[in-house]
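CORE FACILITY INTAKE
Project code: CF-77B
Contact: R.S. (postdoc)
Sample description: multi-component assembly, three entities in total
Requested service: structural model of the whole complex
Turnaround: standard
Below are the sequence entries exactly as provided by the requester. Do not edit them.
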Amino acid sequence: MEHTTLSHHLLLAGMLFVIGLTGVLIRRNLLVVYMCLELMLTASTLALVAFSRFNNTMDGAIFVFFIITVAAAEVAVGLALIVALFRQRQTVSSEKLTTLCD
Amino acid sequence: MNSVSLLHWILFLPLGAAAFSALFLRRQGTLAAWFSTLTAFIIAGLALTILTQTSEDIKWHYELGKIGGISLGFGYLIDAHARLMLFVVSFVAAWIHLFSVGYMKEDEARGRFFAGLSIFMFSILGIVVADNLLMTFIFWELVGFSSYMLIAHYFDTDFAAEASKKAFITNRIGDLGFILGIALCLKLYGTLDFAELKLQAGSAVPIALGLLLMCGFLGKSAQFPLHVWLTDAMAGPTPVSALIHAATMVAAGVYFMARISFLLAPEVLQWMAISGAGMAALAGLCALAQTDIKKSLAYSTLAHLGIMGCAIGLGHPELAVLHMAMHAFFKATLFLGAGSVIRGCHHEQDMLKMGGLLKKMPITAATFIAATLSNCAVPFFAGWYSKDAIIEAAWHDGHFFIFGLLALAAVATCLYSGRMIRLVFMGAPNSKAATHAHESPWTMTLPISVLGIVYAIGAGFAANILIPHSSLQVVEKSLNEMAFHLTAPATIVGAGALILGFLSFKFYGWFAGQDSLQKISPRTYHILEYRWMDTFYNWYIDKVQRRFAEFIVFLDLLVINGLAVRWTVGGTFAALGHISNAIFHRGQTRLNAIWITLGSLLFIWFLVR
Amino acid sequence: MPDGLFIFFAALTIGAAALLVLSRNAVTSAMGMILALVGVAADFFLLDAYFLGVLQVLVYAGAVMVLFLFIIMLLSDTEENPTTYPWRHALTGLAVFFFLAAGVLWLFVWSGAVPSNQVQFTPPEVSSDPLVFTTAAKSFGRLLYTKYLLPLEISGFLLLVALVGVVSISKDSKIQN
């Protein structure tokens, strides 16, 4: 514990973020894409907690609290949208959902 | 409870009822119907309290804010007119609510309908109590909206959709003038408050102000030349026609004119008197050439509105308000009776296909006939007190031309009334539907009876107590005295008209299942039936306005779009647009994500650079 | 050199995240996601943010991921077909990944933008100063109802709106076909 510094945590957060972003870019299944988005969000909360801890202030942690709250609401709405989409189009593949193009 | 909080309740109870019905009772039609009816009766009770318990003017004002030195307020001003109007509106509305419970029994969308009625109540009561022009205007528009919504109740039929659109657009034209009038008023006097305006407006009021404010009245009260929407508005359910398009909303225009009569220049009054009287006579004759019972009644309403407008024009707003009150009672009864007849005959509206309903629907027939007698101004029926007073006033003030037109209107009223009674209730049934007609349930017959027997007849006697006595000075005698003033020209006209009405009653019995006038003189019938103003408007829009619009579009395409946009800057941006379409707008989420990523990276690079 | 626990959990998190991204089966992806979230929660514990760690496990790895799993099982079309996969996409993804990973490494390790001489301290359990980082859940409560009262109420309202929104979106409307 003595040798873990801020940059280690930030590196972990950054890598998680990049992995999540890559997932968003290469996956076609909207559900998995959505999970990758959540991973990116979590990565940012990790960075916030690390900042909060190393700067000896509570604000970042409180912020994470709010992010978790909002993310929960957002997941519920997003999943409802995906279900509604599936009902309409019988697919959750982002490749087949190109109505905006036509 | 003091009177101001009573007024709060009167105004906001229907709003609450409308919101509650619209939010929670959309599927529970029966519940919504009774709930709305209950609130309507509560409001009627409160209005009766206001009428009987208070005598002096009630004033209450709350300033909402100031914009550019102009105070915007919300307030009540209850004078004698407002008190009477409040009572009339809420009482007629309460009974019509009850009628609707029975009439709309099989309707799927009752929740929406009753929520609409409640929101209408809120709007019309707002007009009645408003103490400034802006507040009046806002509620005026709300009334227009609720009327639009209720005409379009059967919005899945083309006709109702078209009719609601027509009513809305025609009213907009009038309201444009109204709001310009408000602006002018603000510029001239710097205030919109009725009481302050009354103090500031001297003898020399600009003609333009009166003309502009009159525009709102022309639209809402369906006066010439904006009368075209009212007959089409009969596409709505019959209770709506009774409440909005006969008893209250169209009368609101008259009420408003009476309220601001001090802002009307003599020339404006002159115009109102002549056009009102002219329209009264013409609309009465047009009613002779309608086979649809509701349309015939709509023309009758037009005629009475003309008479009210004429009374204001003659400088007797008190008489106009009195006639408005009496008219509300008997015309609501007539419309509700028509509704009962239509329902009894399985939604047959053609009068020529009715007949012989007196025996089949005795209660409806009795009340309908009572209201008709009131409509014809038979002595001691409600219409007689007000209508003959107006005719009398025209004679007394020496406007003999207007007196002639009004006399013609009175005759026409009796003619179409006799025809209606003969065709609908007498003789033999002229169709299968009329043969199998049956009396309506109590929820419908009770309101008709109350409105018809008690009010249409009793209101005349009550008029002595109800109306401000200052209004009686115009005929220089009290109503009681006038009732026995048999030598008055108005009485002669009335008696003559009644005799002609009786002849008309006989005349229309000649040919069963056919219109006698059409049989004898098809040309006259056609002239009366033909919708001149509609034809003119269609011609104007098609041949003048549309061509002008096409010309403007041509200019727009050639000069602005073609020369100024496409050929200069347009070229560059069009090219950019094509590129961006090809690259960005492929409709693929993945691609969008990549562009978002690149954009964010660019942004971060700017930040950390 | 960081301590062993951090290395273990960081490796676990990264590995689970890779599983999430690379697995062809959506259920496996969800499992990877759960593991990654637990790893992040463990990192929260290492950072002395015990309350947030618990919250992360309860809300994220628990409730939210259960919701995800339900939806994955509800929708049948969750298997991706490998034969039609455009490998071009994978290449762009990979390029973006390496580019960004290199950027992250550079930014947090070599650029010196992050101060390495950050003072290490042992956070107190409770502090008299509400703004100081503490390990107690109590300090969350104190801040939420004082400095962050308005955001708290707004987020509560947001939850309500989301609730209503979800109900209205997932309602089987009559208009559909």
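Facility notes:
- Chain B has a mean pLDDT of 78.
- Chain B touches chain A at residues 585-590, 593-594, 597 (CB under 8 Å).
Invoice: internal transfer
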